[in-house]
Design brief:
Layout: H1 3-18, E1 22-31, E2 34-42, H2 49-64, E3 75-81, H3 92-97, E4 102-108, E5 117-127, E6 133-140, E7 143-150, E8 154-159, H4 168-174
Helix pairs in contact: 1-2
């Protein structure tokens, strides 16, 4: 993490958390006499554009009013956004927030990070109470089954775009109780 990135992270974390968000990443790109500061935030149930705009104004005020200029005399552009659909699922909260969505998961055989992996496509079901195990609903030939996967065995996982939404069987096995769910809760 660069010095600017670390300083901004420390400075804005309280503001981000006070608004109920998790600070996912801070990225600083310098180009000539300008910088682009990209702040990725997320929270359960997502965020509307108006909420992100308000948060952006608060973050901008904190960065501008810092006792020591973080970016020096450089002008900067601030972008506050939520992670895209292609964000890797790396923390239990990511799995919880993607409940019901389609996912491609690389599962390490034997649990070691350098072990061969098995590629599994399914839909994210329930997490256990301590958020260490997830149910993957896997459908083959019109039949859906649940496969329990320990999150420590996941080498990588990425949500997939889903235009069709879950079947009634998948909704039930995923624990999606609402009618007309189209892949997210």
């Amino acid at each position: 993490m660069s010095g600017d990135t670390e300083a901004i992270t420390v400075l804005i974390s309280p503001v981000v958390h006070a608004q109920g968000f998790d600070l996912e990443e801070v990225i600083v790109h310098r180009s000539g006499d300008r910088s682009v500061v990209r702040i990725l935030v997320d929270r359960d149930n997502g965020a509307e554009l108006d909420v992100l705009a308000d948060l952006s104004r608060e973050i901008s005020a904190v960065v501008d009013d810092a006792p020591k200029p973080i970016l020096g005399a450089l002008a900067y552009t601030l972008e506050v956004t939520s992670p895209g659909v292609d964000r890797p699922l790396t923390a239990p909260r990511h799995w919880r927030r993607a409940h019901g969505r389609k996912v491609i998961v690389q599962i390490a055989s034997g649990g070691a990070a350098d072990s061969p992996t098995e590629k599994v496509a399914g839909r994210i079901g329930r997490l256990n109470d301590d958020e260490t195990v997830v149910d993957l609903v896997i459908t083959h030939g019109g039949r859906s089954d649940v496969r329990r996967v320990d999150l420590t065995d996941v080498a990588s996982a990425v949500v997939q775009v889903d235009f069709g939404g879950p079947s009634a069987d998948e909704r039930e096995l995923c624990g999606l109780l609402e009618k007309n769910v189209r892949g997210n809760t």
